C-alpha cells in the first residue's frame, strides 16, 4: 500500500491544523487535524506512521497489514457525533454537515440530492441500489436533528433500479417521498433541487434554509448514519473511475476508498490507462479539473476520468463562453490550450452572477436558461472561428439556436469526456424538462 497524502483542506472553509507530528503512530480513525474556523475534523484512513507533516498535507506510511477496526468517535448527541466524525457534503461541495444540520427547520424538509448529475458517475446510484436502507436511516437522523417533518429523494427517472429500490424501502414511510427528475444537467445543483422538489426559486445569495430546507447528498447521509450508529469517523470515500481504461469505459465503482489514496492507484485498480490519453480529470466532466496520477483523493472526490486525446485546432481563434454550471474561465482556458486554440474572446452566460468579486459564479436559474445570441454575436465580431462552451443542457441548447447560423463551430468543454464514455454530446436538448411524478409522491 503506497503512502497516503491527506490534504488539510477537504471542505469549505480554512485548512485544518495538524495535531500529529512526524514519527507518530496512527490508527484508522485517529484524529490528525482539526478545524481552525469553518471546517471539519480530518482522520487517518489507515494504520501506520506519520512520515511527514507539510503545509498542506499529512503523509502517512501505511502498515502492510491493515485491520478493519477503527478508533471510534465519542458518544454524544446526534449532532455532536456528526460534527465529531468530520462529515462534509460528499457530493463535491464539502460544506460541513454538522454546521448545516444545526439549522432548526421547524417542520421543514430534508431534500436528498440523489441526482448524480455529472455524466458517467454512478457511485451514489449504486449506493441506493445496494443499500438504500442506510441512506434512509441517515435521512431520519437528519430529520430528527433539524426538526424536519418531511424528506424528499430527488432522483432522475432514468435510474429505474434505484427508484424501484427506494419505492420498496419507502412504501410504509409517510413522511419520506420521491421526486423524479429529468435527465438534464444540472438537476443536482442544490437550488435546482429546491426548485424541482418544492417549487421555490432561490436567488444566487440564498441557501436552501431560505426555503425551510436542507439539501444533503446520498453519500453524506450514509456517512451520517455511520457516525451516529457505528461511531465511525469520516475517513473513506465512494467514487467512480471511468474512461479510457483497460477493460472498457463502463463506470468502475469503488466503495470506502481510504482518503489520501492516489489517483493513479485507483486507475490501476480499475484496470490501468488504455494507451494514449488526453487528460485525467478529478471530479465530473462539468465541474472537475485536470489532475495527475500522484494527486490524492479527498472527502469530496466523486470521479476520476481518463479521457481520449483532444482535437487539434491548429492555432484557430476561439471564444470561451463561461457558465456558472460548468468549468471556470481558468479551466476553459486550460482546455483551449490543450486543443491548440488561441483565446480571442471571453463572455459569460447571461445568468452567471458573481456575488462577490472573485467568488465562483452562480447561475440565476440553474437548468432554465435564456438565449445566448448576444454572446455569439460578440464571438463572431471578435473574429472567432470556434467557441468552447461550458453550459448546462438548456443553455447549450440556446447556444445552438444561433451559433451554427453564424458559422461558429461549437465544442463543449465535456466533449472529450462524452466521446470517451459513449455519452451524447451536449448540444441540442432532446429531453423534456418535465417529468411525471410517482403516484402520491412515491
UniProtKB/TrEMBL annotation:
Q: Does the keyword Chloroplast apply?
A: no
User: Which keywords describe this protein according to UniProt?
Assistant: 4Fe-4S, Electron transport, Iron, Iron-sulfur, Metal-binding, Repeat, Transport
Q: Where is the RnfC Barrel sandwich hybrid domain?
A: 3-55
Per the database entry, which stretches of residues form a coiled coil?
A: none
A Gene Ontology molecular function term of the record: 4 iron, 4 sulfur cluster binding
Domain NADH-ubiquinone oxidoreductase 51kDa subunit FMN-binding intervals? 82-225
One family from Pfam that matches here is RnfC_N
Its Gene Ontology cellular component terms are: membrane
> Which protein, by its recorded name, is this?
Respiratory-chain NADH dehydrogenase 51 Kd subunit
Amino acid at each position: 500500500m503506497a503512502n497516503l497524502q491527506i490534504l488539510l483542506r477537504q471542505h469549505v472553509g480554512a485548512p485544518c491544523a495538524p495535531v500529529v507530528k512526524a514519527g507518530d503512530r496512527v490508527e484508522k480513525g485517529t484524529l490528525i487535524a482539526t478545524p481552525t474556523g469553518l471546517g471539519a475534523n480530518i482522520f487517518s484512513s489507515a494504520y501506520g506512521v506519520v512520515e511527514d507533516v507539510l503545509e498542506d498535507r499529512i503523509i502517512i506510511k501505511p502498515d502492510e497489514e491493515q485491520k478493519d477496526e477503527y478508533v471510534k468517535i465519542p458518544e454524544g448527541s446526534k449532532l455532536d457525533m456528526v460534527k465529531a466524525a468530520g462529515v462534509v457534503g460528499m457530493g463535491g461541495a464539502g460544506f460541513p454537515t454538522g454546521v448545516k444540520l444545526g439549522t432548526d427547520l421547524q417542520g421543514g424538509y430534508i431534500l436528498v440530492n440523489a441526482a448524480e448529475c455529472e455524466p458517467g458517475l454512478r457511485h451514489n446510484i449504486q449506493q441506493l441500489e445496494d443499500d438504500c436502507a442506510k441512506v434512509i436511516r441517515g435521512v431520519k437522523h437528519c430529520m430528527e436533528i433539524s426538526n424536519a417533518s418531511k424528506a424528499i429523494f430527488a432522483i432522475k427517472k432514468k435510474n429505474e433500479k434505484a427508484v424501484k429500490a427506494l419505492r420498496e424501502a419507502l412504501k410504509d414511510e409517510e413522511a419520506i417521498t420521491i421526486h423524479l427528475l429529468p435527465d438534464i444537467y444540472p438537476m443536482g445543483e442544490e437550488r435546482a433541487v429546491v426548485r424541482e422538489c418544492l417549487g421555490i426559486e432561490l436567488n444566487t445569495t440564498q441557501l436552501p434554509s431560505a426555503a425551510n430546507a436542507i439539501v444533503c447528498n446520498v453519500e453524506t447521509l450514509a456517512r451520517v448514519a455511520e457516525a451516529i450508529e457505528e461511531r465511525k469517523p469520516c475517513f473513506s470515500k465512494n467514487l467512480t473511475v471511468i474512461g479510457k481504461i483497460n477493460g472498457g469505459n463502463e463506470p468502475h465503482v469503488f466503495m470506502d476508498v481510504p482518503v489520501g489514496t492516489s489517483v493513479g492507484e485507483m486507475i490501476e485498480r480499475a484496470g490501468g490507462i488504455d494507451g494514449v490519453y488526453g487528460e485525467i480529470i478529478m471530479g465530473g466532466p462539468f465541474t472537475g479539473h485536470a489532475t495527475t496520477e500522484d494527486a490524492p483523493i479527498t472527502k469530496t472526490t466523486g470521479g476520476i476520468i481518463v479521457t481520449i486525446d483532444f482535437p487539434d485546432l491548429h492555432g484557430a481563434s476561439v471564444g470561451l463562453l463561461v457558465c456558472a454550471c460548468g468549468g471556470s474561465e481558468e479551466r476553459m482556458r486550460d482546455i483551449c490550450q490543450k486543443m491548440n486554440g488561441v483565446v480571442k474572446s471571453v463572455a459569460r452566460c447571461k445568468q452567471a452572477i458573481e456575488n462577490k468579486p472573485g467568488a465562483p459564479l452562480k447561475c440565476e436559474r440553474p437548468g432554465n436558461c435564456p438565449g445566448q445570441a448576444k454572446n455569439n454575436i460578440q464571438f463572431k465580431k471578435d473574429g472567432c472561428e470556434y467557441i468552447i462552451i461550458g453550459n448546462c443542457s438548456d443553455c447549450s441548447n440556446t447556444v445552438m439556436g444561433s451559433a451554427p447560423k453564424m458559422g461558429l463551430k461549437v465544442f463543449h468543454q465535456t466533449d472529450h469526456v462524452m466521446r470517451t464514455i459513449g455519452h451524447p454530446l451536449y448540444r441540442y436538448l432532446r429531453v423534456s424538462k418535465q417529468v411525471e411524478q410517482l403516484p402520491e409522491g412515491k
